[in-house]
Hints:
Elements: E1 5-8, H1 18-27, E2 32-38, H2 50-59, E3 63-69, H3 77-82, E4 87-91, H4 98-107, E5 111-116, E6 134-138, H5 153-166, E7 172-176, H6 184-189, E8 194-197, H7 199-202, H8 207-215
Parallel strand pairs: 1-8, 2-3, 3-4, 4-5, 5-6, 6-7, 7-8
Bound molecules: D-xylitol-5-phosphate (DX5) and zinc ion (ZN).
Amino acid sequence: MKQKLIAPSVLSADFGNLQRDIEMINNSSGDWFHVDVMDGRFVPNISFGFPVLKTVKQHAKKFIDVHLMIVEPEKYIDQFVDAGADLVSIHYEASTHLHRSLYQIKDRGAKAGVVLNPATPVSLLQDIITDADLVLLMSVNPGFGGQSFIENTYRKLEELKNLIGSRNASALIQIDGGVNADNARLLFSAGADVLVAGNAVFSADDPMAMISRLKS
Length: 216
Ligand code: DX5
Ligand code: ZN
């Protein structure tokens, strides 16, 4: 059955009031906490690491989705799961031994996701699609919140849906970057299961209402 989940991105939260923003997500119709970890090497920005994830874990009452935008993610998988990740997604472009890393995540008891940058073709997933619990298509170049949605994502989404269907795979499809009230409906109807939203939620006058709007 298709899911329609919203994952507000903590990256756009107010870190001076992090607990307040976490409670807002707890009380909203949002489904997951999306946690963006950036290392300043894989992407040209540094966000946060374990202490912030542990704080999210301490207060969050929902599923925690950790998006690692770091080189050599395999070195830190165990620590991220121990710090509270229910799902760990790693970039195809950063993973030399992707199959091994996905099973490292699963063996630790978490769900395992693969992320593709906008320029990385979906066809590269054909020999790993049945091993992934989720595929995240980046709809912006990773590194920053608040960027514009790349329209070619719709074509990739269609291709990914077909790949999942042809292999009888069960991976969820997640879209991350530039999701807003104008494109959410189209993305869900095109087959997305989980939409990440940072800027759209946290720059809204009423973030909880925006989450409900994106979801419906
Ligand atoms: C970008 C991050 C996103 C980001 C999305 O590198 O992976 O999760 O928070 O932010 P918006 O929704 O603002 O584009
Ligand atoms: Zn993300």
